[in-house]
Specification:
- InterPro entries: AKR, AKR4A/B, Aldo/ket_reductase_CS, NAD(P)_OxRdtase_dom_sf, NADP_OxRdtase_dom.
- This is D-galacturonate reductase-like.
- One of its GO terms (molecular function) is oxidoreductase activity, acting on the CH-OH group of donors, NAD or NADP as acceptor.
- Pfam families: Aldo_ket_red.
- This protein is of the alpha/beta class and about 325 residues long.
- Helices cover about 40% and strands about 15% of the residues.
- The chain has an eight-stranded parallel β-barrel with strand order 3-4-5-6-9-10-11-12, surrounded by four helices.
- Strand 10, helix 6 and strand 11 form a beta-alpha-beta unit.
- Helix 1 crosses helix 2 and helix 2 packs across helix 3.
């Protein structure tokens, strides 16, 4: 079983494994498939699991944790690091604690390790599909929402809090009002969207970056094949006897960030953990730094090209 390094977070009492398993899938997997994949991931050595209310994977993750305990794959829930996220339709001061409690109920847990604001916007109503109408989306009340997130920590519902898809400008708004600073910002980051400026900014603030879509989220409606079909990465992989995915994940890890990667394939799950006993050369890193850059996940691609959304996208 692979041993995964851990990172200390600035405002969270628990260390976080640097690689986590994502549970967002498109099209959504059925509950049994997700549960089975998570149990296989625990067997392979994953101890960090990333979910969100809107993914619909909190319940199968909770069931998988319960089964892993019964099977003796883990001795205690405390061996796991669980991240989930506040969805935008609950991003209002008085709705955050109830939303967090709902996620805990879904997960069958007493506490979450990390609770993130999923998006830097508020939805005025529950939505069944995207994009949304213009009047369904509003600016986030950063002060009120962050107070609600901090209350979740004070009540013992979560060990740490953070954000996702937040620009440097948006983070400054959080830091201006925070008593408990965000431990993490989870953003799209991979060899085709390297985010060097954002990485440096967050490092200076002592906030961990976690990369999502480190392999480009191929075969989803928001991702593409630019990472997995990269000639540069393929050439390095061939010369090293590695997979393209391993080269991409190793590159992300070498940037000093943590990452969440998703595969429900048993062999690829194991391969994705085999990135810690080798390193990329200076020459290889230089080649990867020259890969053309383009952001794949935009708020406009999710919510629609409304003025507020385009303004937020422009901050990246």
């Amino acid at each position: 079983m692979a041993k995964v390094p851990e990172v200390t977070l600035s405002s969270c009492e628990k260390t976080m494994p640097v690689i986590g398993m994502g549970t967002s899938s498109f099209p959504p997997a059925d509950l049994e498939t997700t549960k089975t994949a998570i149990i296989e991931a625990i067997k392979a050595g994953y101890r960090h699991f990333d979910t969100a209310f809107t993914y619909g994977s909190e319940k199968p993750l909770g069931e998988a944790i319960a089964e892993a305990l019964t099977l003796g794959l883990i001795m205690s829930r405390d061996e796991l690091f669980i991240t989930t996220k506040l969805w935008s339709s609950s991003a209002e001061r008085d709705q955050i604690v109830p939303a967090c409690k709902m996620s805990l109920q879904n997960l069958q847990l007493d506490y979450i390790d990390l609770y993130l604001i999923h998006m830097p916007v508020r939805l005025t109503r529950t939505i069944r599909s995207t994009p949304v109408e213009k009047d369904a989306i509003e600016p986030l009340d950063v002060k009120g929402v962050w107070e609600g997130m901090e209350e979740c920590v004070k009540l013992g519902l979560t060990k740490g809090i953070g954000v996702s898809n937040f620009s440097c400008k948006k983070l400054e708004e959080v830091l201006a009002v925070a008593t408990i600073p965000p431990a993490v910002n989870q953003v799209e980051l991979n060899p085709t969207w390297q985010q060097k400026g954002l990485r440096e900014f967050y490092k200076a603030k002592g906030i961990e970056i976690t990369a999502y879509s480190p392999l480009g989220a191929n075969n989803t409606k928001w991702g593409d094949n630019r990472v997995m079909d990269s000639d540069v990465l393929a050439e390095i992989a061939k010369s090293r006897g590695k997979t393209v995915a391993q080269v991409a994940l190793r590159w992300v890890y070498e940037q000093g960030v943590s990452l969440v990667t998703k595969s429900y394939n048993k062999e690829r799950m194991k391969q994705n953990l085999q990135i810690f006993d080798w390193s990329l050369s200076e020459e290889e890193l230089e080649k990867i730094s020259q890969i053309p850059q383009r952001k794949a996940v935009t708020l406009a691609s999710i919510f629609g090209p409304h003025d507020l959304v385009l303004e937020l996208d422009a901050e990246f």
